[in-house]
Amino acid sequence: MTEPRGSALGHRLAGRDLTAAPDALNLLESSASADSADRQDLLRATSPAVLGYEPAGHVVGITGPPGAGKSTLISVLVRELRAANRSVAVIAVDPSSKRSGGSLLGDRARIDFDPADKNLLIRSMATGDRLGGLARPTRDAAAALSAAYDVVIVETVGVGQSETEIADIADTVCVVVQPASGDALQFIKSGIMEIPDVLVVTKADLGQIAQRARRDLHSALRSLGATKTSVVAVSSVPPASGITDLIDAVDAHAESVDLATERAGRRRAQALTEFAEEHGRKGMTALGGRRAAVKEVKTLDPTLDVPQMVAELLRRAEA
Amino acid sequence: MSDHRLPKPDRPWMMRTYAGHSTAAKSNELYRGNLAKGQTGLSIAFDLPTQTGYDAGDELARGEVGKVGVPVAHRGDMKVLLDGIPLDQMNTSMTINATAAWLLGLYIVAAEEQGATEDQLQGTTQNDIIKEFLARGTYAFPPAPSMRLIADMVAYTVTNVPKWNPINICSYHLQEAGATPIQEIAFAMSNAIAVLDAVRDRVDESLMPQVFSRISFFVNAGVRFIEEHAKLRAMSILWDELGRERYGVTDDKLRRFRYGVQVNSLGLTEAQPENNVQRIVLETLAVTLGRDARARAIQLPAWNEALGLPRPWDQQWSLRIQQVMAFETDILDYPDIFEGSKVMDGLVAEMLEGSRAEMAVVAEHGGAVEAVPYMKAELVESHRARIRKIETGEMKVVGINDYRETEHSPLTDDSEGGILVVDSAVEAQQTDALVKWRSERDQPAVDAALAEVARVAATPDENIMPATIAAARAGATTGEWSATLRNAFGEYRAPTGVGEAAGSVAGDEELEGLRDEVDRVSEAIGRRIRILVGKPGLDGHSNGAEQIAVRARDAGMDVVYEGIRLTPSQIAASAVQEGVHVIGLSILSGSHRELIPSVIGALKEAGAGDVPVVVGGIIPDQDVPELTAAGVAAVYTPKDYDLTQIISEIVALVAERNGVAQSA
Questions:
Q1: Taking CB atoms and an 8 Å limit, are B554 and A102 in contact across chains?
Q2: Fewest CB within 10 A of the end CB: N or C in chain B?
């Protein structure tokens, strides 16, 4: 008997067979109920519970306002990472039209890639009916791909609550801002924006302006007590500059945190959100209310994937 | 003597034909034939590899060598191309942009070999990069170094090649990309400002009046020829104003608005193509009728442009239109016939007002270079609105959306379908000839010359022209010069404009119905229908691909828009990585017979051979069976003007290939 599609794809990813990635993403994006079991199998096969370890791929979120230069930055970032022989998957999210449901996924056109490079994947995603900066399958896709690729870059739409959402799925969050806009500073100060792990000031080719912006942001973050956030100035136009600084800052962040704990925490939070969405007030009441539910979810095996956690919560609620 | 007659008729404008194909030798033969027929200037069409800086044999040049123009790789090619044509007397227009500095270098060297000096040379290099970013797609370098190359050329020619027009600011291609007359005026003027400002930094201030006077324009004229004439009068007023106010040019003569023209190709139809002849004639009136805004040089498209490449006979017909207009009619006998016309004055006033407002918007964006994304999005939107008007019948196009019944046209009866077909052996010949050229030249001299180009490129204060001319003399190739600059400047992908295009207006029932169908099929497949839209090869005319992308989005599909200049393997890799259900490819350069089978081959190799491919563009009827045999699911040509219909057929194709039953 051949192995079911979902777990076969999952095992191939876990074995770092990168050719499985496009099909895996097709499956994760599928909303067909017939694919539901396969989808869960795939996630399970790439979960820490089954692997016995946290997937090694570093999930890096890149967000920031439209026009800040995210795609161009990613283009040079990818080139640099590939030059260092690290495999890279990019998930670029663009908004869907409210009226038609369709989307124009144009980021790919802005990222240079070598078609012969088997260690690089670029995948566009549309937000679909979801508000915000990510698509419904983005979380699952990032989780599954992190079992196969060294680095998984997730580029958000860049409007609304993108940076909050991306913090729920990325190990390291980079917020990209242009030197001239004071928005980032205002947003951080007012608490609208969560403090990113890395703040990237683009257009460093502007010289002094970019350097001043970098210093201003740096001191503002210090005054808010955010001592861990690095501020990096980069230029994506040739000759590109600051890209290795950015990679170093992202790597340094990854080393400074306990990934297993962080990820388990995010999976728990996500499981709770999904449980609440699926089972509503009744489900939450059965768990003893929101506060009790938060405590309950912390007792779950941290290596479980999100659907398993949801299932376990449901079992306890019904018990 | 009377006020309503000229003492003697005006001299006619310069008459050219945009021409070149296959090889330098074949094109030379064509030029000599055209000159013998009474053509008074040359207009060189280069092939896409030459325009974008690749040599024959490069992967990106595949299928494109000698197709839409002549390949010119080195001074040897240029010499053959211009053999027997005295360059000290000829007036030559070269449609060349990203690599303009290089081709001017080759031209100067070819003239030198004939014994002509730089100060004798007359002609024009198109050299307008902003419109390449906006509409035509043959750019090579990022905006800043591209503008520097232009400024270098202007600064060099104004002192060394004083009769040369170093740049033709093009509003032509903006109209082809859908620009309204006001956008055409405003974007072209803003573009000129960006160029002049860049040059001002590189020449002595005292030279600015001279610089200003060397800037010429290349405009378009559509079939609404009265409005089009008003557009040119408005441009001439704005130009005069700009010279006086912004650049302090006090000599009236140096502020004259000088323009050449190629009349509209966008409005030429594939259906009943003989009707294009009267369109071309009427459009020519727009640029000849009023003396105060008459063209200096005219080249006319051929009646069969929407079918494929014109043959010498087709081009002769267009030249004869010009000659009849200039020599048989009384158009050149009178002073300006619109002076005092209420209609003309009113139209010009409207255009001036609209253009000034639009120029202010571009200025607010920081000028034309910074405003490229804005202008691009505006053009895509205007083009969308134009197509919509044709679809709804609000804009009538005879033979397309009205009066479609027709007798059989005998004009397309020959075995090639009434067009020129370039021998596909040309590419291999050119590639081999290049190998031979390289083996016979002084390689250390070439290496040293290119190293000097690289050094100057990295030294922004130095002018690129002397090193470029030296490299041309040493025997370097177009691809080598361009690669040297690509190394120094980096590469660039222009904005696509599609992301910002407005959605369709509500109340389009056909589109509403299509959305329901897209939803139904998507649900059955499990994912929203995904289409990859892109352009293989070097052809940068992306208007059609952009409009398909926007309409597919409006129909509810997820559209991965890849843009221009893609290799078959890039398209295949994208199709696999993106998990698309269908691929739409657009080609207008005539390279479909080579490129489309390559794409399908690459898809099979990448394991995506089952993804259906549809093709759009200028595809002659007789090529369709070959494409179908190669595995193409459907072919669309300019006569398929209803985009919603095209998208609905694509949806049906996706449904069929994925086993989704037809809706009840």
A1: yes
A2: C
Residue B493 near chain A (CB below 8 Å): yes
Chain B contact set for A94 (CB, 8 A): 499
What is the rounded CA–CA span in Å between residue B650 and residue B655?
Answer: 9
Interchain contact, B569 vs A94, CB within 8 Å: no
Return the SS3 of B438: helix
Q: How far apart are CA B496 and CA A188, in angstroms?
A: 32
Q: Rounded to an integer, what distance in angstroms lies between the CA atom of residue A174 and that of residue B54?
A: 38
User: What are the distances in angstroms from CA B177 to CA A319, B220, B639, B644?
Assistant: 66, 11, 17, 20
Instruction: Report the CATH number of the B509-657 domain.
Output: 3.40.50.280
* Residue from B146, B365, B498, B528 whose CB has the most chain A CBs within 10 Å, to mutate: B528
- Rounded to the nearest integer, the mean pLDDT of chain B is 94
Please, which pLDDT band fits residue A193 given cuts at 50, 70 and 90?
Answer: low
- Percent of residues, chain B, with pLDDT higher than 70: 98
Considering CB atoms only, which of A96, A109, A113 is closest to B563?
A: A109
B563 touches chain A (CB under 8 A): yes
Q: What one-character-per-residue DSSP string does B28-74 give?
A: HHHHHHHHHTT--SEEEEBPHHHHHT--TTSGGGTTTTTSSSB---S
Q: Where are the domains of chain B?
A: 14-398, 509-657
Tokens of B526: 């499990």
**pLDDT higher than 90, residue A98:** no
Residues of B assigned a catalytic role: 18, 172-173, 535, 539, 541
Residue in A with minimal Cα distance to B145: A238
Q: At residue B1, does pLDDT exceed 60?
A: no
- CA distance linking residue A124 with residue B647, whole number of Å: 21
**Percentage of residues of chain A with pLDDT beyond 90:** 52
pLDDT given at position B23? 96
Grouping H, G, I as helix, E, B as strand and the rest as coil, residue A273 is: helix
**Residues of chain A positioned with their CB less than 8 A from the CB of B556:** 100-102
Tens of pLDDT, residue by residue over B490-544, are 888 888 877 766 665 656 888 999 999 999 999 999 999 999 999 999 988 898 9
3-state percent helix, strand, coil for chain A, nearest multiple of 5: 50, 15, 35
Whether A72 and A214 share a structural domain: yes
Distance from CA of B441 to the nearest CA of A (A): 32
Q: What number is the ipTM of this complex?
A: 0.93
CATH of B14-398 given 2.60.120.620, 3.20.20.240, 3.40.800.10, 3.40.50.2300: 3.20.20.240
Q: What length does chain A have? A: 319
Name the residue in chain A with its Cα closest to that of B565. Answer: A109
